[in-house]
Write a sequence for this structure.
């Protein structure tokens, strides 16, 4: 009988490791364009109305500032107030991520006017430009985006030559005036994001048609994945949440159809409790 071969069988080769090489993404030049139509002065809600018996109905209400009378009423928060606060939040957050990002500002009446033309990382100049934004006392008959796209195209070429990326963020507030443009098909060299704040649909407005026109404009000009976010709820916190979503860099985004943030905390908590129950882990209702 032949002796057994003492050599152990060769081990199977380890599967190759997957690695993603680090890539340095370009800093952004971000041009904010804010609608200054009369509708930008519409009042916003501070919070949704609590239902009877809900936990929120028992929560303490904000107190008037010291020195104010017992019957003092807080001034209403208008869309432009929320826009200014959200822009300040965005600028500070974006510079915290990377201080090399730069910002410029424009306003949209019948057409686009520059508020701060030169892109800068200076917080002071950004704050000054943001606080200078104000809603008009009248409605504009049209909203022409042609000049905005012309400016963005020129700035996009300049940004590209500097190894940067240009993005335009449009905040639009009109519930009946559809934006239009006369922009030829050119090489796309900037990304367009849009937040649309509008009234609820009625017989006197057409926010759906306005939204469709904004989608068409975005698809016509946006180089990378541009997001369009809208709300007719009138809640400032919803708008702030949407602005936080736009902090994402265009080169690090999923397509908007796959966007599933922000998640509802209540739903997330329920999912955790269900998973714990399935694992047999007791879930106590006591705190």
């Amino acid at each position: 009988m032949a002796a057994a071969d003492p050599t152990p069988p060769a081990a199977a080769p380890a599967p190759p490791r997957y690695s993603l090489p680090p890539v340095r993404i370009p800093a952004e030049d971000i041009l904010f364009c804010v609608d200054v139509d009369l509708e930008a002065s519409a009042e916003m809600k501070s919070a949704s109305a609590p239902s009877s018996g809900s936990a929120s109905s028992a929560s303490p209400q904000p107190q008037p500032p010291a020195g104010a009378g017992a019957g003092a009423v807080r001034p209403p928060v208008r869309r432009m107030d929320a826009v200014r606060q959200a822009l300040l939040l965005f600028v500070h957050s974006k510079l915290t991520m990377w201080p090399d990002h730069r910002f410029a500002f424009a306003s949209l009446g019948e057409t686009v006017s520059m508020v701060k033309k030169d892109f800068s990382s200076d917080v002071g100049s950004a704050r000054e430009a943001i606080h200078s934004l104000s809603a008009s006392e009248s409605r504009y008959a049209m909203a022409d985006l042609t000049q905005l796209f012309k400016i963005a195209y020129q700035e996009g070429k300049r940004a590209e030559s500097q190894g940067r990326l240009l993005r335009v963020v449009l905040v639009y507030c009109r519930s009946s005036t559809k934006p239009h443009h006369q922009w030829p098909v050119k090489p796309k060299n900037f990304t367009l994001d849009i937040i649309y704040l509008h009234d609820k649909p009625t017989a006197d407005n057409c926010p759906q048609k306005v939204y469709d026109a904004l989608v068409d404009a975005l698809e016509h000009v946006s180089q990378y994945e541009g997001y369009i976010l809208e709300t007719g709820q009138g809640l400032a916190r919803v708008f702030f949440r949407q602005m936080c979503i736009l902090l994402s860099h265009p080169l690090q985004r999923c397509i908007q159809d796959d966007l599933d943030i922000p998640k509802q905390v209540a739903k997330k908590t329920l999912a955790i409790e269900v998973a714990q129950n399935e694992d047999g882990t007791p879930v106590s209702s006591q705190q």
Summary: Residues 116 and 229 are 25 Å apart (CA to CA).
